[in-house]
Amino acid sequence: MILPINQTPKDDPKVLKDQLILMKFVAVYCHDKHAGALGSRRLDMKILDTKELNDNAPCLCPDCQKLLAHALVKRAVCPMQPKPACKHCPKHCYHPRYRQEIREVMKYSGRKLVLRGRLDYLLHLLF
Question: What is the band of 8 on the pLDDT scale with cuts at 50, 70, 90?
Fold first, then answer.
């Protein structure tokens, strides 16, 4: 079932959880791959009016900030209900460049977090 964007539940706890996981994955990737990048600063989360996202916003390089902003907005307005994993979705909404970047981020960060003992992310990595 596909819902129009204006009917997508933006305050859904699953959406918020997915967005927080995205933030964690991008933060791990940026910290490891772009350590010391000039211009690292907290992501301005005015694009999404969610206090929990704003409170957990990581410091990222400008490229990772753009990627995370794109991913958070796409997840917030996903028209698919129930939401499949993006890699299994019949309609890809990410811009092709960002899609390739987020795949690389998920692959790298998922492995890294599982090796650090975050076994709960193993399900997210696999499915």
Answer: very low
Burial (Cβ within 10 Å: 0-12, 13-18, ≥19) of residue 67 = buried
What is the extent of the structural domain holding 120?
A: 5-126
> What are the helix (H) ranges across 34-95?
51-55, 62-76
In total, how many domains does the chain have?
A: 1
Q: What is the DSSP letter of 82?
A: S
Peptide bond between residue 96 and the one before it cis (omega within 30 degrees of 0): no
Report which DSSP code applies to 6. G
pLDDT tens digits for range 10-61: 567 888 888 888 888 998 999 888 876 655 666 666 666 556 776 777 888 8
* pTM for the whole structure: 0.75
Give the three-state DSSP class for 81: coil
